[in-house]
Amino acid sequence: MSVVHLGLDRAAVLHPLDGTGFLVPRGQRESRVLSGNLWLSALFPTHAPDAKVLLTSYLGGARRPEAADWDDERSVANVLSVLEPLLGLRGAPDMVRVDRHRRGLPLYHGAYQGRMRAIDERLARLPGLSLAANYRDGVSVRDRIVCGHAIARRVCTALGHRSRAEMIAPMAGSLGMAG
What we know:
36% of the residues lie in helices and 17% in strands. By secondary structure, it is of the alpha+beta class. Strands 2-3-4-1-5 form a 5-stranded antiparallel β-sheet. The longest helix is centred in the last third of the chain and has 18 residues, at 141-158. The radius of gyration is 20 Å and the shape is globular. 18% of the residues are buried.
């Protein structure tokens, strides 16, 4: 996977960047190049100087592994070809950095499900031990929140703090999580 960081003047980006970024679903035209784009300066304002933005794009991975071998110029050109119409980019970036990670994202295939069942079976024999990690049940921030709430509920219930477990339910509901 290649990670392309672009620093731009805020005025050179027409999109309000009023979120965290986007993932590109498989099958979209853009997915031939990009897996996603994070608006890091929206997430972490100190990651860019005032009146600047930092956009971080992810290329390659399992969808297009050869992208990790593209030179910087080709990587940046591909990112810009997707971001310019989507975000209304005007002008060239002030800062460009390309990082390459040969094993950047976990792939959940092969014996993954069997390993997860084996871990769950061992955890069931160890009362009081709970496990949360980004390789279990998804890697997104939302996935981590959902899993964290589920574990907090189990821990509260196991400790007999029924009222705390019930307090978690409304928070989970506001995040669109069932149960």
